[in-house]
Amino acid sequence: MLDRTTSFRFKEPRQQGGVSVEHCIRQRRSVRGFRDRALTEGELGQLLWAAQGITAADGKRAVSSAGALYPLELYAVCGNVGTLASGVYRYHPAHHELLLIAAGHQREKLVDAARGQEWIVTAPAVICIAAVFERTTAKYGNRGRGYVYMEAGHAAESLMLQAVALGLATTMVGAFGDDEVKHLLHLAQDEGPLCLLPVGVP
Predict the structure, then answer these.
(1) What average pLDDT does the segment 24-40 reach?
(2) What is the pLDDT at residue 90?
(3) Which of 7, 36, 73, 198 is the one with CA 20 to 30 A from 80?
(4) How far apart are CA 16 and CA 103, in angstroms?
(5) pLDDT score recorded for residue 161
(6) Which residues are paired to 73 by β-bridges?
(7) CB 79 within 8 A of CB 86
(8) Which residues make Cβ contacts (< 8 Å) with residue 102, sequence separation at least 6?
């Protein structure tokens, strides 16, 4: 485990683009396998912002959240992203930055955790959407678990559409061992992984 103060701050996310949301909806496809090309830091930052970025002065985020409780946490497993060292990073929305959690190549280990889906290793980055259910269930009880899953779906779709706008592609991976992914990504005790999104150039 590394010192969590090791960080990389992204440049400000792009607020306007030249691709319509209708185009992104029409072009979105589940892609499993990517070209051998790195992501830029800007591309990764834009993807993370689309899923959980701050979009208002009062701290509201890019996707809706029941009670504005924001139970989701994003992790990025980076293997070929600009000048970033390979490793596991946690996204910090308030400062639009990554915090290094663990160094080293982890994508190969993710393949094992994801039931041998070998194509995952071709992605320059894999984003994990995790959640702290108690942030929502403390207010809404067991019903809150459903709200968290809804929110994760919102975040994943926003990330997917942003990927299309950037000329990238991804798909949602749900077949994996929860405990294996939690250990590999060094999730906190109260966090659970919900899905993986390998991202790259199709």
Answers:
(1) 97
(2) 98
(3) 73
(4) 33
(5) 98
(6) 130
(7) yes
(8) 1, 2, 87, 88, 185, 186
Q: Taking the domain 19-200, which CATH number applies?
A: 3.40.109.10
pLDDT, residue 96, reads 98
Q: What's the pLDDT score for residue 6?
A: 84
Q: How many CB atoms lie within 10 A of CB 2?
A: 14
Q: What is the 3-state secondary structure of the chain?
A: CCCCCCEEECCCCCCCCCCCHHHHHHHCCECCCCCCCCECHHHHHHHHHHHHCECCCCCCECCCCHHHCCCEEEEEEECCECCCCCEEEEEEHHHCEEEEEEECCCHHHHHHHCCCCHHHHHCCEEEEEEECCHHHHHHHCCHHHHHHHHHHHHHHHHHHHHHHHCCCEECCECCCCHHHHHHHCCCCCCCEEEEEEEEECC
**pLDDT tens digit string along 56-79?**
999 999 999 999 999 999 999 999
Whether 143 has a pLDDT exceeding 70, the answer reads: yes
Average pLDDT value for the chain:
96
